[in-house]
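Why does residue order matter? Because the sequence determines the fold. Keep that principle in mind as you read this record.
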Amino acid sequence: MSALHRWSRCLAPGLWAVALAGRVVAAPEVAPGDEAFFESRVRPVLAEHCAECHLGGKSKGGLRLDSRASTLAGGDSGPAAIPGDADASRLVRAIRYGDPDLRMPPRTRLPPDAIAALEAWVRRGLPDPRTADAALPTVSAAKPPDGAGSRKHWAFQPVRRIAAPAVHGASDPVDGFLLARLQAAGLGFSSAADRRTWIRRVTMDLTGLPATEAAVHAFASDERPDARERWVDALLSDPAYGERWGRWWLDVARYADTNGQDENKVMANAWRYRDWVVSAMNADLPMDRFLVEQLAGDLLPTAGVDEHVAAARRTATGFLVLGPKLLAEQDKPKLVLDVIDEQIDTIGRSMLGLTLGCARCHDHKFDPVSQREYYALAGIFRSTRTMENLAFVSKFNECGISTRAELEAIAAHAGEVKGLAARLAAVEREADDALRASWSGALPRVLVAPDDASLPAGLRERVAAARRGTNALASALRGLADEPDAPATVARWQASLASDGPVPGWRGAGFGCRATNALEIPVARESGPRDWTLSAWVRMDAVETGGDTRRWLVSRGANEWEDGHLALVIDKDRPGALANAGGGPEHVVAAFGKAGILKAREWRHLAAVCDARHLRVYLDGTEVAAVPMPGRVPAGKGPFVLGRRPDGYIGFRGRLDSVRLDQTGLAAEAVGRL
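Structure:
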């Protein structure tokens, strides 16, 4: 029954109440208005300016100001004050500094409001609720809400043992208190519950679950004298007991899986704190340990402590992280202070039964908590790092709790993955080399025989140029031999060429774009971000008007929002380029030349150079646009596509020739020679 007894009083607000309120003892009778005046005006002055010499047992010059009696008795020079006569009181004359030989405090004159408070105190007759042996707290006190003074509230009285009333018919001390109160009201206990009813009630109360039929039958048949104690002990050992009673604390501790504010961030590891609370209940963790581990579990000594126990203590400090914190606050210093305020407010409500948060802006109007005391406590939490960092909202409320063995296992696994990745990269390089060697000689024969007289003259010229290596587009076609997926690409190209037929290009045959067709150019696998130069001779059929006038000529990545997207484009009659280094619309970089510099049915050379610093657009070798880049474009996904955006969006109508994909950022002179 020890656990049930302990937790039945687990929320007693006695941890810091004495520290905040001072020592509470029987006090002299003082008029309510006078006591309120003393607590709000006089006590703070005495505590701040007189404690060093005349309070807490100190009596410099024989004078103590611990109580009304000691003040009237005075010191070596006689009574310190005459009730009702401020001008004749030595205390008032000393603080006024009118007599050079009588000045208190001796080093610095009191502030005017402090002098006025002590003068008014003497005129009121020196009302003082303190007893002669009461020690005055060394911190200021807030104004009580009424004449009786909030310090006399039962919650601030010292805990003392009270003997249970001797009442006939009470089987234990708890029943004694209950029955005494009932009899005072002319009532008594209800009739004793039968065994079946009793076990159902106790099971529901301790575990929150209804007793099973088998359990009810077993208890009803249990004739041992201590059957009730045995069954209660069994229920207290049931894991459901911790779940049932832990829920009460979790409500007080504002437990939730999200922070509840606008962003409603999911706290993926909040369940660890929940499980710790349940385990603490089931383990019958003493109340003081239960609270201390939640406030400072990470600061408790770890010497000789099992790693899992130490990790559980750190988990307990999740109490400070939970709750409605505005994690998206852009002012980080304010965020830290707001988190501290929420922690203090929760601690006050859950552990002390006080609304400490009210004192953030002013002395508490009801509880004996001053603004000074609030910020003294806030200073403690300000020196505590609750959050791992302030860089990322998604992570700054998490802290690793892995044991040494777990960290070693993680490191070993990472090393194994790294080794396997290196082996895989070597195998891929070997396969690439073998395919490249195989296809480099076979691709021209797969594509077309150079002496095939049935081919159009333009296409035969393209093939011949590819043999000579003088035509840029044909060179790009030959480069396909370096890629494993070249056969499928060649098949698509052959089908497209067979159905469309080649079109006259800037030099020889070109690719005709009808807005519905496209060509794909695979590129070698990229190991990371790099510079690029995209270029092509372009002839558009007409200037696009109405709706979306942007057309993709050569591009990679589904669309401009995709990380790694890179494109050479035309917008109406402006040449341009697009890049994305980060993903999302906020990372789109666009560069466009002036309107009107492109005409329909004219061959023009367009180029885009993208490096770590700039995205530049060239027209016929002359730079027409340049914008800053946040960094190199990351490795992209998929092949480069000619004639439309890779995701199939609106296609280009016109012709392309001599398309080049250079995996380097060409200088302006080199672009002019393309």
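The two ends are 91 Å apart (CA to CA).
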